[in-house]
Design brief:
Cofactor: NAD(+)
Organism: Deinococcus malanensis
Keywords: Amino-acid biosynthesis, Aromatic amino acid biosynthesis, Lyase, NAD
Shape: globular
Oligomer: single chain
CATH topology of the largest domain: Dehydroquinate synthase-like, alpha domain
Largest sheet: 7 strands, parallel
Structural class: alpha/beta
Order of helices and strands: HEHEHHEEHEHEHEEEHHHHHHHHHEEH
Number of domains: 2
Protein name: 3-dehydroquinate synthase
Pfam families: DHQ_synthase, DHQS_C
Distance between the termini: 87 Å
Strand content: 15-25%
Length: about 400
C-alpha cells in the first residue's frame, strides 16, 4: 500500500486515533433484617434467591458460630430440605475458622475456591457465608475471583458485620503486613441480618461493633449520636431492642453513603467512612490482632477526636461527649500500642498515615470533626500534636 504524497502515514494516523469507552453498571441488593433465618417457615432466604427453578448454594460457616449455635448446621440442612423445590445444598456446609487469622493465610481463600470448583458453583449459583466480618471478607474475595465473580449471600453474625462491613461492596484479605491489601469491589446478591445471632456474642464483640455506629453517627447523624449517648447503659447491658435500632440505623447510614456518595468503589482519595481507621488498622497489626477491629476503631476515633480538639477544630464539649459515649459503651480509648510511635515510614502507629494514603493513592486525606455531625477533610496531620493526643488519652486512661 502506497501513501499519497503529502498524506500522513498509516502509522501516524494510527497513533492519533482513540476509542472512548463509556458505560454504566447498575447495582442493587437488599439488606434484610429478620429473626430465625433458618426456621423452615421463614421465607426470607428463599425469596432472596430470585428466579425460577432450583438454585445451588455452597454454604461456608464460621466455626465460632457453630460453637455458639450447635444446631446451625442441622437447621441449614432442614431448611434446604423443606425448600428443595427452589434450593439445592451443594454438599455439606464447610466450616472454617473465624477471626482475623482467616484473612492472613492464603490457604483459606484457596480452600473456598477449591470448594466452588469441586461443587460446580457457577455464576448462576450462590455462595452463602455465615459468620463475622473477617470470614465474610475472605469468602467474598474468594467468590469474587472465582469465574470472575459468583453470587454471594452474606449472613453476618456480629454487630460489626451486620451494621457495617457486610452491608457494603468490599471484599478483602490481608497481605504484606497490611490490612485489606488484596481485595475486590463486588456487591453481594443480598445481606441477611438475623438478630438472633447477636444474642450469643462475647461481650467484646457485642460492644466492639458499636464503635462503627459511633463513627457514622459522628459523621452523618447527630440525632443518632444522641440515641447512642442516651442509651449507652442499655446497650452495654445487652438490651436487644436498643441494639436492634443501633444496628439498623448504622447499616442504613452506611448503605446510604455507599449508594449516594458518588464514589462507591473509592476511585478518589477520600474515604469518609474510615474516620478513625488510619490508626485502627495499624493498631490491629501492632497487637497481632489481639485488639479487635471495633476496639481499634474506638481508639482511632478517640485519637482523631482528641487531635481535632487540640488543634482547635473540635469544641471541648463535643470532645468530652465523644469520649464519654465510647467509654459508656465499654469501648477502649487507649491501648499501650498507641505509644508505639515509630515514624510515618516505620512500623509504629504513625506509619498508619502513610499506609492509609497508599491504600487509596494520591494525596493524604483524613476525615476529622469540627463538631458532631460536621466532618471535614484535612491533608496533613501535625505529628507533635498526635503525640500530645496520645499522651492525653493515656493520662485519661490511667487516671480513671
Amino acid at each position: 500500500m502506497t501513501t499519497p504524497r503529502g498524506a500522513p502515514s498509516t502509522q501516524d494516523a494510527f497513533s492519533r486515533r482513540s476509542i472512548q469507552q463509556d458505560f454504566q453498571v447498575h447495582y442493587r441488593y437488599p439488606v434484610i433484617f429478620t429473626r430465625s433465618l433458618f426456621n423452615v417457615e421463614n421465607t426470607v432466604l428463599r425469596q432472596a434467591i430470585a428466579g425460577p427453578g432450583r438454585h445451588r448454594v455452597l454454604v461456608i460457616v464460621d466455626e465460632g458460630v457453630t460453637q455458639h449455635h450447635p444446631l446451625l448446621i442441622e437447621s441449614v440442612g432442614q431448611y434446604f430440605a423443606a425448600h428443595d423445590d427452589a434450593l439445592e445444598l451443594a454438599g455439606l456446609p464447610v466450616v472454617l475458622p473465624g477471626g482475623e487469622q482467616i484473612k492472613l493465610d492464603p490457604k483459606y481463600v484457596q480452600a473456598v475456591q477449591a470448594e466452588i470448583n469441586a461443587h460446580g458453583i457457577d455464576r448462576h449459583s450462590y455462595v452463602m457465608v455465615i459468620g463475622g466480618g473477617a470470614i465474610i471478607d475472605m469468602v467474598g474475595y474468594a467468590a469474587a475471583t472465582a469465574h470472575r465473580g459468583v453470587r454471594l449471600l452474606r449472613v453476618p453474625t456480629t454487630v460489626l458485620s451486620q451494621n457495617d462491613s457486610a452491608v457494603g461492596v468490599k471484599n478483602s484479605v490481608n497481605a504484606f503486613g497490611k490490612k485489606n491489601f488484596l481485595g475486590t469491589f463486588a456487591p453481594p446478591h443480598a445481606v441477611l441480618n438475623d438478630l438472633d445471632f447477636l444474642t450469643t456474642l462475647e461481650e467484646r464483640d457485642w460492644s466492639g461493633g458499636l464503635s462503627e455506629a459511633v463513627k457514622v453517627a459522628l459523621l452523618k447523624d447527630p440525632e443518632f449520636f444522641v440515641f447512642l449517648e442516651e442509651h449507652a447503659q442499655q446497650l452495654r447491658a445487652r438490651d436487644l431492642d436498643a441494639m436492634a435500632h443501633a444496628v439498623f440505623r448504622c447499616a442504613e447510614l452506611h448503605v446510604q453513603h455507599i449508594g449516594n456518595s458518588g464514589d462507591p468503589f473509592e476511585a478518589g482519595s477520600s474515604r469518609p467512612l474510615d474516620f478513625g481507621h488510619w490508626a485502627a488498622h495499624k493498631l490491629e497489626a501492632l497487637t497481632h490482632h489481639a485488639l479487635r477491629h471495633g476496639e481499634a476503631v474506638a481508639v482511632g476515633i478517640a485519637l482523631d477526636s482528641t487531635y481535632a480538639y487540640l488543634v482547635g477544630m473540635l469544641p471541648e464539649s463535643d470532645w468530652k461527649r465523644i469520649l464519654g459515649v465510647l467509654e459508656g459503651l465499654g469501648l477502649p480509648v487507649f491501648v499501650p500500642e498507641l505509644e508505639t510511635e515509630g515514624s510515618v515510614r516505620t512500623s509504629g502507629v504513625l506509619a498508619g498515615l502513610q499506609e492509609f494514603r497508599e491504600h487509596l493513592g494520591g494525596r493524604l486525606t483524613v476525615t476529622l470533626l469540627e463538631g458532631i455531625g460536621r466532618p471535614v477533610e484535612v491533608h496533613e496531620m501535625d505529628l507533635d500534636v498526635l503525640r500530645e493526643s496520645v499522651g492525653m488519652l493515656k493520662n485519661l486512661h490511667t487516671g480513671r
